[in-house]
Amino acid sequence: MRILLVNPNSTMSMTETIRASAQRVVLAQTVLVARTVAGSPASIEGHADEARAVPGLLDTIRDAEAEGAQATVIACFDDPGLGAAREVARGPVLGICQAGVQVATTIAARFSIVTTLPRSVPIIEDLVDAYGATRQCRRVRSVNLPVLALEEDPSEAFARLRNEIRRSAEEDGAEAVLLGCAGMAEMCLALQAETGIPVIDGVTAAVKLAEAMVGGGFATAKAGSYAFPRQKTAPAHCSA
After folding, report:
1. Where are the domains of the chain?
2. Comparing 2-95+204-215 with 97-201, is the CATH topology the same?
3. pTM for this predicted structure
4. What would the pLDDT profile of 125-182 be if each residue is shown by its tens digit?
5. How far is residue 84's CA from residue 13's CA, in Å, rounded to a whole number?
6. Distance, CA of 3 to CA of 33 (rounded, Å)
7. N-term to C-term CA, the chain
8. Could you write out the three-class secondary structure of 13-45?
9. Tell me: domain 2-95+204-215, CATH 3.40.50.12500, correct?
10. Out of 128, 174, 221, 239, which could bridge 168 as a Cys pair, Cβ 3.0 to 4.6 Å?
């Protein structure tokens, strides 16, 4: 089984962090193909960053499927370009926010999400609503750190995450917490051990769901919304 794990931003060290976290949980026969989208923003922090990352993301998915990838995981919690990616892909495409929400609603009746910057909160709230989990998601919290600070100052990031996870349980009544950034993946197990609360990493959730979908023989439906994009040619201009 061959799964594409694509980091939509251009920070290669983050791609390696994400790959290492996913590699710990995949089956022995699963081959992870980790790719970084060159030319995209260094981190995805808002709608403009998402828009700039999507063209390269789609090209990466097309190339990986041509090389044999059977499923794709988009390793950014904003799930950038998810619908477009499903149009260009034959295999299933999973966003780590949607996958994390699905796992959270399966293992807990109430959960909270902890993300990076405050500006990401409304984006994630809208995603949770679109995924039908508004009632179960009690709150989206922020540690008020940029995405790249997760690598630049991991000790500070860990401390802030730990504190927000504890507040999620105490103040929100959360029974589990979903980490709201792919760059937090490597901290998941340690955060769970320190807080005693189930902590979900969307990368792990998406990769395991991808394995299950490939194993079950599922592919992206092509009869309607996710049909392949139509090929178009620009109309010839009439001469004056």
Report:
1. 2-95+204-215, 97-201
2. yes
3. 0.93
4. 999 999 999 999 999 999 999 998 888 899 999 999 999 999 999 999 999 999 999 9
5. 26
6. 6
7. 57
8. HHHHHHHHHHHCCCCCCCEEEEEECCCCCCCCC
9. yes
10. 174
